[in-house]
Structures are given as C-alpha cells and as structure tokens.
Amino acid sequence: xxxxxxxxxxxxxxxxxxxxxxxxxxxxxxxxxxDIRSLNNIGSFFxxxxxxxxxxxxxxxxxACPPHKDIHKTALGATDVVSWEYCSxxxxxxxxxxxxxxxxxxxxxxxxxxxxxxxxxLLHTQFALVFGNEVxxxxxxxxxxxxxxxxxxxxxxxxxxxxxxxxxxxxxxxCKLLHPNLKTNT
Length: 186
Prior knowledge:
Distance between the termini: 36 Å
CATH topology: Alpha/beta knot
Shape: globular
CATH architecture: 3-Layer(aba) Sandwich
CATH class: Alpha Beta
Number of helices: 6
Structural class: alpha/beta
Strand content: 15-25%
Order of helices and strands: HEHEHEHEEEHEH
Largest sheet: 7 strands, parallel
Number of domains: 1
Number of strands: 7
C-alpha cells in the first residue's frame, strides 16, 4: 500500500472561483449542440466545457437551455460560468462562424473524415465543433457546409459513443492542442 499517494478531498483541489474562471483565457473552441434531446447530456457538455475551459456553447434546435433541474443535475453549476447562447438555426450559426474565420468541424462518422489524433494537421486556429442528436447525429446539411468531419477511431462492435462521452474525448484532444499549459514541442 502506497500511503504517500492519497486521494484529495474536495477542499484540497485548489478550485478557482467563478469570477476567476470567467476572467481567465479560454481555448479557442466553440461547442455547438445540434438537437441534443437529453437534458443530462446537455448538462454533461457544460461540465466538460468548464473542465477544458472552452470559449462558449451554442444550443441549437430542440436543445434545451438552462436553467433546468435535469441540466443542473449533471452540470453541477457549470451553466453559471460557461458562456452559452441559444440559436434556433444551426445553418445560420455555422455560416456566420465561417464568415468570422472559425474552422467548423462536425464530429461524426462519414465517408471522408479526419481521425481525431490527427487534428494537429488542421490549419485553423479557432474551432467550432458540432455535436449531433443522440439518434440521428449531425444533419447532412451541416456536414455539407462544415470545413470537415472529425471521427474518433473505435475498435469495438458498436462504433457508437454517447454524445457527451464523445465530447469529453474530443474536447480533451483540442485542449491538449490549444491550451498554453499543455502545448508540447512535438
């Protein structure tokens, strides 16, 4: 038993305050939720966005907005600090972001994809990542106007991840690429 490696208590985590979080630099990543139906998934997106310090979440289509008790249940207060906005038309939002030089990439399985581990080859410096409905994924019309499709390689029989789990995997990779404290000289 290694007694020098002890689990930290919540008060030992050196959490920053909400004010410090709001004022700190964010990674240049926008998360776009396209018709996410599960309130728990929406809350998980907020919590993950908080963890990796993304710039903003856009809630589109049928995606519910805070405040809601079921979003709060999984967000654990992240809806209070992560910047967010509702947009009824994802197509208008994607068009607007592209005009502002955001690289818009859908997270999906398609015929032509870039595997997640190769995102360092992307030429954009700011990214808008589109995550789609739990059953139907990202709309084809959105894929058609995106700059590309990013896919998480999978090796099991299902080739399917819960959308909020997918977000955790994808956002961690973008955080490694873009967060100044994690950049490497490789």
